[in-house]
Amino acid sequence: MAVNFSALQVMQDAPVIPVIVLNDVAHAVPMARALVAGGIRMLEVTLRTPHALACMQAIAQEVPGAVVGAGTVRSPADAAAAAKAGARFAVSPGYTRAVGQACRDNGLSLLPGVATGSEIMMAQEDGYTELKFFPAMQAGGPAMLKAWSGPFFDVKFCPTGGVTQQNAHELLSLPNVACVGGSWLVPADALAQGDWSRIEALAREASRLPR
Ligand code: 3PG
């Protein structure tokens, strides 16, 4: 099966990959349209809620401008289910060889999560050079990324966890950061209120972050 979008393509498309938690299938399509209207089309829908797969499917079918990915992929079964629901890339909070293999088997590129040098080396051994740094701000933030830029000069990171519109700047200015991830583009209260214009405005602001 062909890989849909490479991890590098996913990272380079916009400065921010939104980390999305959806509790209601009815929110999925209008939310995705708002993000796309604001200039963000790589959408990480996390597998954290009972309706996450149905939400992915709705976005994949009804929002042609969006590229839906699966977040919180923690097992081979998650990868298979996400691909079946229309996901075109995967993001995981950590890395296991089994998850990597399942993503390849299902034609999904993977942004594996790492937080230590050993985890980076393990992911590199399996051919991954684009990695998610998670949880980024809690695990060392920009200082950690600067330290890694020496030994891991050939790795590009997507720091995620504790990233905001305010601190994204500093992260994006680092040469080994290709993009950042964060949940601030899709606040739970904006979803609950159906405030799509607020989500669009947050996406527009994020899409204009310099890098
Ligand atoms: C997550 O997996 O929850 C992401 O890292 C998002 O973290 P954030 O809510 O701090 O952006």
Automatic annotation (TrEMBL):
Residues passing through the membrane, by range: none
Catalyzed reactions per annotation: 2-dehydro-3-deoxy-6-phospho-D-gluconate = D-glyceraldehyde 3-phosphate + pyruvate
A Pfam family assignment: Aldolase
Keyword Lyase: yes
EC number: 4.1.2.14
Keywords: Carbohydrate metabolism, Lyase, Schiff base
Gene Ontology MF annotations: 2-dehydro-3-deoxy-phosphogluconate aldolase activity
Keyword Lyase found: yes
Pathway entry: Carbohydrate acid metabolism; 2-dehydro-3-deoxy-D-gluconate degradation; D-glyceraldehyde 3-phosphate and pyruvate from 2-dehydro-3-deoxy-D-gluconate: step 2/2
Major enzyme class: lyase
Gene3D superfamilies linked: Aldolase class I
Top-rank taxon: Bacteria
Subunit and partners: Homotrimer.
PANTHER family the UniProt entry points to: 2-DEHYDRO-3-DEOXY-6-PHOSPHOGALACTONATE ALDOLASE-RELATED, 2-KETO-3-DEOXY-6-PHOSPHOGLUCONATE ALDOLASE
Family: Belongs to the KHG/KDPG aldolase family.
Entry protein name: 2-dehydro-3-deoxy-phosphogluconate aldolase
Species: Limnohabitans planktonicus II-D5
